[in-house]
Specification:
The structure is a homodimer.
Chain A lengths: L1 H16 L10 H4 L7 E10 L3 H12 L5 E4 L6 H10 L5 E5 L41 H17 L7 E3 L3 H4 L2 H14 L16 H4 L9 E3 L10 H10 L4 E7 L6 H6 L8 H11 L2 H9 L2 E3 L2 H6 L2
Parallel strand pairs in A: 1-2, 1-6, 1-7, 2-3, 3-4, 5-6
Chain lengths: ~300, ~300
């Protein structure tokens, strides 16, 4: 909990305030055919597959154009529903939200790999750890076995992912070895992965671990627990108006706040049912579309980014 | 599908029409302190843990007295929710609904044991088989490993089960070896298990496999796919009015027909959301309570049965 919370705060602040670190080489925006001043945005829904309420809201948000990219949690119970949808809609920009934790209390999941091959990832009941604490010893080789298993199940069930990212930023924020496990798997599968220049100052091992061919986007914005419900729209309005040139990913979490979602997340409010309903409501609003137009923000997908490599 | 359907039909017919086979030894009813003519009933909700909608409806039905016993599916995603409830309510009559299939399409689960130790139970994607067909080769030793893993996780998470039974009757209807796996595990854990005299004619290996100390109830009644929605109440009214002396278990399936449940079961109507809502509605009705009184039917639980052993 704590790590994820602190991390999210850093991201929110970083995404809002830090300018892109200059680079000598051609920017992603330029490779996409835009000028250096272009403001490009990925509106990205995380956690697809977690519950039916997340799937239903994500599909509605994708089909209405409110979000243009999303990533899927393979170990989750509702993965077959979204895999079926992804297979039937191969143009949708679906990545894999590589998952090594099962953070809830009343509704949980475990590894895709055989449990005895990824022993350090699971608790005494066989689920992924709720959380990683100072005493949790994660073996990077177990993580790598599990990442491969998730990707293999996704392909086997018909998904052709456009990108990879990491649930709760676990593979970015917990040391060089876990990040390198992600890199090895991404390179092997020839998939771009979410990494933002914003994060380099906080985690010094990220930038030196990258290969020359890896794509780095410029910024990321995600809402923090400190934002009160009534200030939700204000947060996003400010973020859109202050959007920096380059490629930014808005990391959002949509779901319908129905009985399933409320029950699944009832032990705490952060990233809970009401939170996700607020994200759904803001990003499917006419106001959001108008703000993008006013600010001359262009939407881009991971599929488009991948083509520039 | 087919096997389960045929089996359910047989049970429904058997439960309604066949008299108890006479035995020389003392009946379960007599051991409970009732006469041989007493009509004793367990109103048993299956599939607890499958979804939140099943858990919520089962808890409501238990707390209102509409059902007096239930059994829990340990491998299912919502198992932690019902385990938490069972731990906080140790007097509730919860058994374990031992599960070896993952019959749905959009929402699935897999084994509790490490997958590579129970290879014959899982499909190419690592979930329990949707169904067992003529070509599915289930290794009884794999089933036994998985049964033990489910029971161990249940105890580890605070459940003290009153009985065992088998999801979709798989351990009764698929040969002597699987039934004997259930027997070994039940004897080792000193738990009574659901077996009804009604079934002996259909599956000749059941009765000879039993030990003298095993408890056999007399009848079971469960509704069949052939019953149309508008005849739901009629089926149960007739079953209650024709209840035979001895111990009968009504095997029912309750859930709220909300978005989660409708989505989880949408590929077919049998045992679907509307079916389970109809069961919930009938058994929580005043009419059901009145019928029990009129027919002088006494409710008994598995915990009470276990005490007579």
């Amino acid at each position: 909990m704590k790590l994820a919370r602190v991390w999210t705060l850093l991201l929110a602040v970083g995404g809002m305030a830090l300018p892109a670190i200059g680079q000598n080489k051609t920017s992603v925006a330029e490779r996409l055919g835009f000028g250096r001043d272009a403001k490009l945005l990925i509106v990205h829904a995380d956690d697809v597959g977690m519950t039916h309420a997340v799937n239903a809201a994500t599909i509605k948000a994708l089909e209405s154009g409110a979000v243009n990219s999303a990533s899927i949690m393979v170990p989750c119970p509702w993965f077959p529903e979204i895999a079926d949808y992804a297979k039937a809609h191969p143009d949708v920009d679906f990545g894999l939200h590589l998952t090594l934790t099962s953070e809830r209390v009343y509704y949980r999941w475990g590894p895709v790999a055989p449990r005895d091959r990824v022993a350090s990832l699971v608790d005494e009941n066989g689920y992924f750890w709720h959380d990683w604490t100072a005493t949790t010893r994660i073996e990077p080789k177990d993580a790598e076995v599990e990442l491969r298993a998730q990707i293999e199940r996704a392909y086997a069930m018909g998904i052709r992912p456009t990108h990879l990212d990491s649930h709760q930023y676990r593979l970015y924020a917990n040391g060089k070895e876990l990040f390198e496990a992600l890199l090895r798997v991404a390179h092997e599968k020839k998939l771009p992965f979410f990494v933002a220049r914003d994060w380099f100052a906080e985690h010094s091992y990220l930038e030196p671990s990258l290969s020359p061919g890896d794509m780095v986007i410029d910024h990321t914005v995600t809402i923090a627990p400190e934002v009160r419900a009534e200030k939700w729209g204000d947060f996003y309005r400010t973020a859109i108006k202050n959007l920096q040139p380059g490629v930014t990913e808005f990391v959002i979490h949509v779901a319908f706040a129905d009985e399933e979602m409320k029950a699944a997340t009832r032990e705490r409010e952060t990233w809970g049912a009401a939170w996700r309903q607020r994200d759904f409501d803001f990003f499917t609003s006419a106001e959001f579309r108008e703000l993008l137009q006013q600010q001359k923000i262009r939407l881009v997908t991971w599929r488009e980014l991948a083509r520039t490599r």
